[in-house]
Amino acid sequence: MTAEATIHISSAVVSVLPDQRDNVLRMLAALPGVETHQRDASKIVIVMEAAECGIMGGRLAEIATWPGVLSANMVFEQADGPVEIGD
Q1: How far is CA 82 from the centre of its chain?
Q2: CATH code for 7-77?
Q3: Labelling 64: which of 2, 7, 26, 28 has CA 20 to 30 A away?
Q4: Cα dihedral angle (84, 79, 49, 45), rounded to 10 degrees?
């Protein structure tokens, strides 16, 4: 019997001080499994992927402690297993 891999996908909004936004964007780009999808002067929308939901929670907790970050809040989470394509 083979263990099935599960992928957890989550979106989050990171609120930042406008003068720290570019620095936070650079730091986000360095995190594995994190992509930036939208930004304005004080908010950044990210999507995270990980094998476990605890990993994403840990990443959000870490991001929330960065200089210039006011908050990092999960908006959506989904867990999916393998998908068979075709017949």
Answers
A1: 21
A2: 3.30.70.920
A3: 7
A4: 120
pLDDT tens digits, the chain, 87 residues: what are they? 345 678 889 999 999 999 999 999 999 999 999 999 999 999 999 999 998 888 888 999 999 999 999 999 999 888 887 656 565
Note the residue count of the chain: 87
Q: Which of 65, 73, 77 is nearest to 10 (CA)?
A: 77
Beta bridge partners of 13: 45, 73
| Structure-token pair, residue 56 | 């994403």
Give the span between the Cα atoms of 68 and 17, in whole angstroms: 5
Which amino acid, residue 5? Answer: A
CA distances from 83 to 31, 34, 87 (A): 26, 22, 12
Total-model pTM = 0.83
**How far is residue 48's CA from residue 31's CA, in Å, rounded to a whole number?**
9
